[in-house]
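In this section we walk through a basic example: taking a raw amino acid sequence and producing a predicted 3D structure, encoded as discrete structure tokens. The instruction is simple. Fold the sequence below.
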Amino acid sequence: MHFDFSSVDDLESYVSVPEGLHNCRIAEVREGRARDGSVRWSYRLEVIDGEWVGRTAAWDSITWSERGVFRVKKVFEALGLDVRGELEIDPEDLVDLRARVSVEPEEREDPVTGRRQVRMRVPYLGYARFEEDERVAQATRAREPRARESREHHDLAGAVDAPNGNGDAERDGASSEEEDFPF
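The resulting token sequence is shown next.
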């Protein structure tokens, strides 16, 4: 076999969703330290709807430093937390919170391996409230009594409800990409 490898790019890609806006939830949080010694919470953003559901949109982090708390406030606000006063919060309290997140590719050189990598990153103010979530929840609550009455009627008539077995969303399966995070 003869092959010219000079045309093969040495760029490692950890991109599993396209650039743009995605509705995401925080799937996991890892506590660590920033270079200045401040507490840093790194978290994985998972897409919750659409074609890319279940995939990692990006890893991001917030830093509890004097310089970083402005962004912490903006991120928490987008996640639906009340940031008008004092707040007591632990890293695990962020899991399952949702926001509309902007992601864009970022290329960098891994300091350990020296290899070029591309990952998705969230811009500084790349978060917005996930408004659809509350409207859907309200609409669901409003329909619930009618749906319950309908089910009771069908049960009385001998109808059998079967779940709509649409299966689990396909996962991106590339969890090893985060092992060297945060970068």
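Looking at the output, two observations stand out. Strands lie at 12-13, 20-33, 39-47, 56-63, 98-109, 116-121, 127-128. The chain has two domains: 10-129, 131-160. In the next section we compare this with other chains.
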